[in-house]
Amino acid sequence: MPEFKAHQKTFTQKPIHQGNLLQIKTLKLLICLLLILVTFLAFGQVRNNEFINLDDNLYVADNPHVKGGLTLRGVLWAFTTAYAGHWHPVTWLSHMLDVNLFGLHPGGHHLTNLFLHITITLLVFILLQRMTGAPLRSGFVAGLFALHPLHVESVAWVWLKEKISSVPSSGCLRYGPITPTFKRRA
């Protein structure tokens, strides 16, 4: 019986010169700084916003557990209670920490949402850049993500921190660098 061998391609990488590596790292750093700047310019005015009467009061301003700040009692409450129809302990803990840091001044709470949004934007850039190896295209897509109108509410409404705080821990970014592997068949 004849043997069939799979066609194998050899992939060789061109050596990266030290100067090119420095240029690539510099480009990635500049893209990150630009993403931070553009996102802050687009959403930075939230620091002047008040709490919104829709749900911010229910979640923060009128919630006795959150108003107490980050305490052992508050942590136990966050993990054991479905308050306002939701069970999201990370969000509750984040609101409690905001109260410890900023009190009930809404500007600090809004800036926390903005900081989380900028962090997620940078994670999107890093993930796309690792997947594609194309920093400019990855930066463009991360910029679209950062400025997309669907994210306005998540940044501008304190209670929508639940959407922002779930992304880094959701598992979609936990796998680290994504690199293709080619294995030889036995």
In short:
The protein has about 190 residues and is mainly alpha-helical. Helices cover about 60% and strands about 0% of the residues. Helix 1 runs parallel beside helix 7, helix 5 (about 90-100) packs across helix 6 (about 105-130) and helix 6 runs antiparallel to helix 7.
Question: Could you describe the 3D structure shown?
Answer:
There is one protein chain. With 186 residues, the protein is an all-alpha fold. The protein has a domain at 42-166. The protein is built from 9 helices and no strands. The chain starts with 17 loop residues before the first helix and ends in a 20-residue tail after the last helix. The relative contact order is 0.15. Mean pLDDT is 82; it is low at 169-184.
- Treating each run of at least 4 consecutive H or I residues as one helix, how many helices? 9
Q: Which structural category fits the helices and strands?
A: mainly alpha
Task: Provide the helix percentage.
Answer: 55-70%
**Termini distance?**
18 Å
Mean pLDDT: 82
Assess the beta-strand content as a share of residues. under 5%
Topology (elements, then pairings):
Elements: H1 18-43, H2 56-61, H3 64-67, H4 72-80, H5 89-102, H6 106-132, H7 135-147, H8 152-156, H9 161-166
Helix pairs in contact: 1-6, 1-7, 4-5, 5-6, 6-7
Summarize this structure as a short list of keywords or feature phrases:
single chain, 186 residues, mainly alpha
